[in-house]
Amino acid sequence: MCTDAVPFPYRPDSVATNDAAAQRGAYAAAPEPLPVPVYDNHTHFDFGDTPVELGAALDAAAAVGVAGAVQVGCDLPSSRFTLEAVDADPRLLGAVAIHPNDAPELAAAGELEDALAEIDAMAAHPRIRAIGETGLDYFRTGPDGMAAQHHSFRAHLDIAKARDLSLQIHCRDAHPDVLDILAEVGAPGRLVFHCFSGDAELARICNEKGWYMSFSGTVTFKNAHNLREALAVADPALVLVETDAPFLTPHPFRGRPNASYMLPYTVRAMAELTGRDVAAMGQVLNRNTEAVYGTWS
User: Fold this and answer.
1) Of 25, 62, 132, 150, which residue is the least packed, with the fewest Cβ within 10 Å?
2) Entry pTM
């Protein structure tokens, strides 16, 4: 499902190749275009060692049927970048937040409340359609940081509800506590488990609550049986797709940098896993994406 063409100079020093002998950090060549254009629900154009050529990146995505993306901030610099990016290109919508791993450091420095206030102010921008990524992460943050993470998560929930915005949840090794806080303070009207990492049980809870599940390239990983089981039981009306680029590159390019133009690999895998043709999968994803974020125009 690949062409031989180099998709674009994603970063000034990047190379695109499918040569197995090429260096592991090279970008893959462009996939076959999708028959129905879809949107990348979560990506980070500002991450990496060198700057992304934003217009070229979005052109490359459009060439394979990825019509636009949600650029996601996860600290103050990336959230500020997000505001600049959504103003620069109409193919982008945005999300802004403080990542749970950053909350303890900001709290320790006495800067968390000011950071949350700035996120709230940024959320007033008309092309910011979500608060995220926020949530809990116990993989990198130990018990000493949990209180700050919980406080930050609750504050983001309050912002999303007050501004009637969607909320993108980052959850790693913390699903029970995420669910407890959502039960305690209440979820916003539109809630997305970004890079869904749960199992079929969590998918059933999302079905019951009307919460969206955004699947990334991880659903294509050979050992990701729990994700495929979750996708199998997920309500189709609650399923989204994302890259989380430059991370989580889908099989068979796992380990290489990801990008929005790689999204068709995940879309095709999801179509196969759910027994849909690719066009029907794209139509489902687009309806759900618009329900969460509104329109790009």
Assistant:
1) 25
2) 0.92
